[in-house]
Design a protein that fits this description.
The structure is a single chain. The chain has helices at 2-8, 21-25, 32-59, 61-66, 74-77, 82-99, 107-126, 134-154, 160-188, 201-224, 226-232, 241-258, 264-270, 272-290. By secondary structure, the protein is mainly alpha-helical. It folds into two domains: 1-158, Tetracycline Repressor, domain 2, CATH 1.10.357; 159-291. The longest helix has 29 residues, at 160-188. Its EC number is 2.4.2.45. It is a multi-pass membrane protein.
Length: 292
Amino acid sequence: MIDLFRLIRPKQWIKNTIVLLPIFFGGALLKPDALYAGFIVVLSFSFIASSIYCLNDIIDLKDDKRHPVKCKRPLASGAISVVQGYLIMLSMVILSMLTLLLLPEHGAEVAGVIFFYWILNIAYCLVLKQHAIIDVCVIAFGFVLRLFAGGLATGIGLSKWIVLMTFLLMLFLSFAKRRDDVLRMNETGKAPRKNTSRYNLTFINQAITITASVTLVCYIMYTMSPEVVANFHTDKLYLTSVFVLLGLLRYIQIAVVDKKSGDPTKVILRDRFIQLIVLGFGLTFLIIIYQL
């Protein structure tokens, strides 16, 4: 059972809470129907993502066996066979689709988005992840698809700013993760991924800086846009930009100074500073838009 959980990686399911962003930024946190639909989609996306984790580990089996850390994964260590891996993958896909039956409406549309996400990530595992820049763009776009699914399930329209910010932020985190691969390549002389040789520290550092800067500017423009001011009846949302800036700076510090940006999920779950920043951002945003 432990090996099963290690294979489907439930700790990574936190990424799928991106689905709830339309509810948060759409001012619908006090609407039970929207929250119910959002959590159903989070669960469905979690299952479909786990199926991709299974496929990825099957495809990378030989490379993982040579990796100092990944060699301990269930498939690479032999704890779970390849056949069992495929069966678990299929089970996760079925669970994902069955979960969507609990949606009161728009289930077919959401299923279409999730199916497209699944196909895109199969292509990523097989081909796309071998190409530098394309690999991180596909990962970032996967989070945009989560956003679309959340918007469809809850009936909340997505602001162009939210879509842009999500893509840019995930691109930033993906480049930071690739930085860890480059550091390992520089230390061992071997590329952890086939495309790692197409990255170096100079390029990665500049990419991180650019994406962080554009993300911050995009968020500031979002908070000051006329439609957002009219929708929330306040022009004070720009104050939350401080937390966005602090969060980006802290993550850059973890990546560049601490050299521990290999797993964004672990960073978020373990770093108290980032957790406080997220909490401060959320509370400040809620106080401003809900006038608590």
